[in-house]
Design a protein that fits this description.
Layout: H1 5-13, E1 17-25, E2 30-36, E3 39-45, H2 50-65, E4 84-85, E5 88-89
Antiparallel strand pairs: 1-2, 2-3, 4-5
Length: 90
């Protein structure tokens, strides 16, 4: 049985999701707001190949180091910067 996106995120990030809402859900992107036992988090995918999203993540991290204010990506409990669900990285 396939896990839901919320249950997978809760497992991989060791969170209890108390409430969630879709901020943006189109054919190009999906963005969810999660209220959890550890605060508020955003879960996002761009429906692009993993290689493209990893490039974007590296670019964001570079800009953060240069002082640009971009929210940091939080790694899973296992150390990955994303989770895969239905073939897309979040």
């Amino acid at each position: 049985m396939k896990k839901s996106l919320l249950s997978l995120a809760a497992e991989k990030y060791q969170l209890t999701v108390r409430k969630h809402s879709y901020i943006h859900d189109t054919e190009k992107t999906r963005v969810l707001s999660l209220e959890t036992n550890q605060g508020k988090f955003i879960l996002k995918t761009l429906y692009k190949p993993l290689s493209r999203q990893l490039f974007i993540l590296e670019a964001e991290n570079y800009l953060i180091k240069k002082g640009v204010h971009i929210p940091k990506t939080i790694s899973t409990h296992g150390g990955n910067p994303y989770i895969m669900w239905e073939g897309h990285p979040y």
